[in-house]
Amino acid sequence: MPDREGPFHVAVLTTGGTIEKTYDETDGSLRNVSSVLDALLKELRLPDLTVTHLPVMSKDSLDMTPEDRERILQAVRGALAVHDAVLVIHGTDTLVETGEFLHENLMQLTAPVILTGAMRPYEFRDTDALQNVTESMLAGRLLTPGVYVVMHGRAMAFPGVVKSRERRTFARSG
Amino acid sequence: MPDREGPFHVAVLTTGGTIEKTYDETDGSLRNVSSVLDALLKELRLPDLTVTHLPVMSKDSLDMTPEDRERILQAVRGALAVHDAVLVIHGTDTLVETGEFLHENLMQLTAPVILTGAMRPYEFRDTDALQNVTESMLAGRLLTPGVYVVMHGRAMAFPGVVKSRERRTFARSG
Amino acid sequence: MPDREGPFHVAVLTTGGTIEKTYDETDGSLRNVSSVLDALLKELRLPDLTVTHLPVMSKDSLDMTPEDRERILQAVRGALAVHDAVLVIHGTDTLVETGEFLHENLMQLTAPVILTGAMRPYEFRDTDALQNVTESMLAGRLLTPGVYVVMHGRAMAFPGVVKSRERRTFARSG
Amino acid sequence: MPDREGPFHVAVLTTGGTIEKTYDETDGSLRNVSSVLDALLKELRLPDLTVTHLPVMSKDSLDMTPEDRERILQAVRGALAVHDAVLVIHGTDTLVETGEFLHENLMQLTAPVILTGAMRPYEFRDTDALQNVTESMLAGRLLTPGVYVVMHGRAMAFPGVVKSRERRTFARSG
Description:
alpha/beta; 6-stranded mixed sheet; two-stranded antiparallel ribbon; homotetramer
């Protein structure tokens, strides 16, 4: 089925993650400092879309606490009230935990909630960040209400998704 | 709705177009010579997909004849028999003509047929080629059978699509 | 010998050429419209240099007239009075003519005059523009007064330089 | 002065350093694993040059020992016997130590020895690696025998060079 007509409003909540790790030349470290989303979006042509960037936090997802996930849930609920799709940029290490948590706690969804990120930071020349965000923007238009991970040419609904470390991507569990 | 499980086979038919124009340093020309698809696909991570590249022709779409469109139709029919989605890389100038022609002549589709291309050739640093092919690959998994153009964050079903020269993108007509 | 100490002032005169050809999506043309130098310089780290950009013209060098070359000569003379090195960005097709003309008409040089350009426009992903401008900036510090072409790892003094079309680079004649 | 005529042979000794740090997606680390030189050289047009890549080691220069520097010295001596210029790719943190050591121990040089590296790894989109290696290749043709660091538009002879952490570049000391 094609996407719907008329203005389409996407909220992009950034929480950090590998995708947004940046390199500090003074000490050679790779850390989450601030969001790279605005630079990334400049590379895309999305003439029929309005994108609102809502920075929630800037964390490696291995460091996320239950309180962090609760904050993300609240932010998603708020964004859902006034947007046609909600993207959550998230570290891949615990993306599944957050996806399952959102799936369990978001009732009667009226729009798709899409988690995405990257295996290689956007700052790198061989990053998958651009591909995954590109896919997520289109998926926001095409998917029915639900909670999903979109990455590497796949759109998978929660529950029942795992991170495959060997294949460095996401897959259905079981 | 999420994409289906199991192996997914995409056929990519290349016909030329702006996306594939390459620069000749000896005479400064920009022409369709050969396909850039394989170089472009190397930039994408599509671990759960098999892609078959079927070069059909290498033409600026302004130069396409009714015989060319008939050839494309035959190639699409053949690809549909053994693939889960068919992408057609096409010049944007007459993409709508080919889309309408395919829509009128393909009966009882079992898979989506997706036309895409680019406003700026893949050879350029600011190309939209990668974005559009990325979107088309995911769209191949998500769209129901039909004939579509996918570009710049939109997936629009034929009939009723136009190329908007001022906005340099595609839109619904009327 | 190493480069000299203290502040170093480079003038970059842009005249157009292949290096600066940009793509017009509305009609698919590749033309000299405006200078790409400022975008290109943003990619370089030159902390001990001040660069002044002096746009002289925006022409394919095949279209240059004797009056154009006279204008370039006057601009170079003016820049030499207040800079430590002068770069001239020029189309490669008649770069040799301009180089010979400058060599014949610039007396008692106090700084190097370096002509450079590119075989592939800066707008392309596989451009040699960045390499050639990078080399020219360093060459401005290292070369003794004279008129040169710097490109593809070579710095050749006029007179006696030719464009090699088969090898798509410059070489010494005879 | 212009560069000399005839075939020109450059040896590039790689020792690791920031320039060559690569990202491991399985554990998010940035480490010296192998050389990126061959990928980097593919981006340059050097038709009149032969480049021989001699991997010496793959170390962060903070981890270099006196034995490591002795190995580099031996490798440079060997390369000088059969090349017209020798480049040493080195981490920036202790590049000065190695430069001073080479300067003290290389007698009667017949060719320039050029140390270079990068403040930002080649794997990053905003790397200075390409600029610095490009400059070093041309400097190999233009500099008189001696030991130098070439980076960010500067060619500075040892002794008397320091790494400026605040300006994230090299400068003359005192």
